[in-house]
Amino acid sequence: MQRPVPKYIHAEVPRGIQGAGTNRRDQKQNDLDARLGLPAQAQYTLRMKTNQQWLIAARPQGEAKESDFRWNETTVADPADGQVLIRTVYISLDPTNRVWMNGAESYLPPLPLGNVMRGVAVCVVEESRNPSYAKGDLVQGLLGWQQYSISDGALLGKLPKGLPVPLTAFFGLLGHIGLTAYFGLLDICEPKPGETLVISTAAGAVGSLVGQIGKIKGCHVVGLTGTDEKCRWIKDELGFDAAINYKTANVPEALKQNCPKGIDIYFDNVGGEILEAVLNQITLKARISVCGMISQYNEDRPVPGPPNLANLIVKRARMEGFLCTDYNSRAEEAFTQMIGWLMQGKLKYRVDVVEGLENAPRALHKLFDGSNKGKLIVKVGPE
Ligand code: NAP
User: Fold this and answer.
1) How much is the pLDDT for 302?
2) What are 338-358's pLDDT values in tens digits?
3) Going by C-beta distance under 8 Å and a sequence separation of 6 or more, which residues neighbour residue 353?
4) What rounded mean pLDDT belongs to the chain?
5) Among 99, 294, 354, 366, which is best to mutate for testing ligand 1, by the most ligand atoms less than 8 A from CB?
């Protein structure tokens, strides 16, 4: 793997010099170079804006390693008519990043080797030649693990300014994580007061919101997570009724103890053995939101599923998969409600911000060893 080099200082280049054609120079620039006594090409190179990026270099075997990525530097082009030049502020690290690295077709086309690593980013428009965007606009999109990108605006979402939340919230509460938690629970599981709701990865970005929304809806909420610190956080800070450390507890026993009336709703983020344990304890007409399968993302071969899926039949239960993007058209409904809950102190969240694009591949590991405390984000540049 090529190690990242230290960040450059990006000297701004006067318009008409930087850009599409790296040989495009004007007389003013030549005169300036001469006055400074620098060889023209060296001076030009210093002034060019460099785009640092991570490319996908190999299909991971098991968990993604740094050697599955390649650090790359290229020159930032000028936006053409109708385009915008965008600077990345944050990128979101998500368990699905690992899924995107596989060669197989999924809910998005496979990412070809050599492409910029795919990722959701919050960015600022640096330069616009598109009438729908102005310099300084905040935008979000699948812009990848890189410092700069050029877009025609078609797949960009403009972010509102002036909301009483930090920019990072546009990945969490007011982003794809918020949509996932809100609709994955409310639309698919239709929780009712007094019902028992169990959540896996309960201290994570999605899980922690699901549990709090469950409490707002009057459920008895039980969370499964992998450390005692996370157990304390969801119980003491977020108000879950019970927390189970699935790495140290006997999960079927702990579920029995904490869900004495059975499990009416399961918000599944992991699949595998925990799903199997839950299926044995579901109630009549239970609902299961199939949100994620993180216990299987690093597996190279298909893993055997729970042998007790037939319990869905016996219990006339509903298990339903979904993607947060199914709910894009209803985002305003979710975000208006959740920002209200945030303001009323009914919802809390935490973010885990890793500094520097160069650390993105290493940071991805935190999602799989469980050391991320809240929504995992990489800070690429200043806000
Ligand atoms: P997160 O929960 O903030 O972080 C991932 C967590 O997963 C880790 O902190 C770890 O927590 C847990 N984990 C890792 N490996 C595990 C394993 N083998 N078994 C059990 N738990 C494991 O991540 P997130 O972004 O909120 O995502 C959570 C789930 O939601 C993922 O499955 C993701 O794919 C899914 N998701 C789905 C959609 C959708 O549209 N359907 C959208 C967003 C996310 P512990 O310490 O608790 O082990």
Assistant:
1) 78
2) 999 999 999 999 999 999 999
3) 90, 168, 377, 378, 379
4) 89
5) 294
